[in-house]
Amino acid sequence: MVVHWRKAQDSLQRLAAEPRFGLFSDFDGTLAPLAATAGQVQPSQRVLQLLSDLRELLPVVALISGRSVAALHAKVSLPGLVYVGNHGLERLEAGEVRANPAVQAYRPALQAALQALQALNDEGTHVEDKGLTLTMHYRQAADPQAFARQHEQSVRRIAAEQGLQFFTGKMVFELRPPVEIDKGVVLRELVQTHGIKAALFMGDDVTDISALRMAGQMRQAGECTAWGVAVQAPDAPEALEAAADWRASGVEDVEDLLAWLLAARKASST
Predict the structure, then answer these.
(1) Is residue 224 located within the same domain as residue 144?
(2) What CATH number is attached to the domain comprising 208?
(3) Which residues lie below 8 Å from residue 246, measured CB to CB, with a gap of 6+?
(4) Which of 51, 25, 67 has its CA nearest to residue 204?
(5) Containing structural domain, residue 145
(6) Strand 198-203 relative to strand 21-25: parallel, antiparallel, unpaired?
(7) Fewest beta carbons within 10 Å, which of 135, 139, 205, 240?
(8) What Rg do the C-alpha atoms of the chain give, in angstroms?
(9) Do both 168 and 235 map to the same domain?
(10) Each residue of 193-245: pLDDT tens digit?
């Protein structure tokens, strides 16, 4: 098991003291507690204030989410942050949403898949059209595990028939265009674009594993002193901690980590 972040304060102190230190994070389940529906997820006022304060002191604070970038921005609405949605397929830049141009060709396939997925809906489940991807939520099904077992192969078949990629997450199935991008690719691009020399990424779900691994790869290659934090939860994937350097014990502990980083950053600048 990886160590708790409080046992890595020497390394965190060096991160906070690096002038070109960047903070990168998932949103749902990391900065805001999961809820019955995505619409009910809300970040605390404390985490919003901490992100705002850190943005004043860091070259970049970026949120990399599976949500659409518009939905992500609506939940946070802080100026100066970098917002990346749909696992890297779109970004909010200069107030404008910019999608990966390779995705547009798959809109007909996504619409066909949407209709097929809606036919599988049961009580407590729904399909979210995020514009560039589709997510079937089954957290509120009467028996989520039974629903997953019963329908996973059907969802996989729909994805294959439409030339889309299939992914799983916390009580969700996801269909995405076969575009070679993930949170790890996005993390590296943002580090390079912003000239970041030290970085921290935080995440709690399957799609965050690529970014946690990328942090370690960049550090080992000498590209950037990057580290990853796995956010623990009862339904966290087993591979999450294996890909991380440190762990945090849920969203409130992530808030404590942000507060610690803010204090350390202020101390290093005086």
Answers:
(1) no
(2) 3.40.50.1000
(3) 2, 3, 4, 5, 7, 8, 227, 228, 229, 230
(4) 25
(5) 102-176
(6) parallel
(7) 139
(8) 18
(9) no
(10) 999 999 999 999 999 999 999 999 999 999 999 999 999 988 888 899 999 99
Number of other residues whose CB lies within 10 A of the CB of residue 205? 24
Q: Is residue 28 located within the same domain as residue 128?
A: no
Calculate ∠ Cα 106-210-236, nearest 5°.
105
Q: Is 145 exposed, middle or buried (0-12, 13-18, 19+ CB in 10 A)?
A: exposed
CATH number for 172 = 3.30.70.1020
pTM value is 0.93
Cβ distance 209 to 228 under 8 Å? no
Alpha-carbon dihedral sign for residues 26, 29, 35, 37: positive
| CA–CA–CA angle 133, 24, 11 (5° rounding) | 145
Which of 198, 247, 192, 196 is closest to 219 using CA atoms? 198
Helix 251-268 / helix 45-57 crossing angle, nearest 10 deg: 30
Residue 94 shares a structural domain with residue 110:
no
Encoding tokens for residue 64?
Answer: 């990399």
Q: Encode pLDDT of 10-52 as tens digits.
A: 999 999 999 999 999 999 999 999 998 889 999 999 999 999 9
Q: Angle CA(71)–CA(75)–CA(76) in degrees, nearest 5? A: 120
Number of domains in the chain: 2
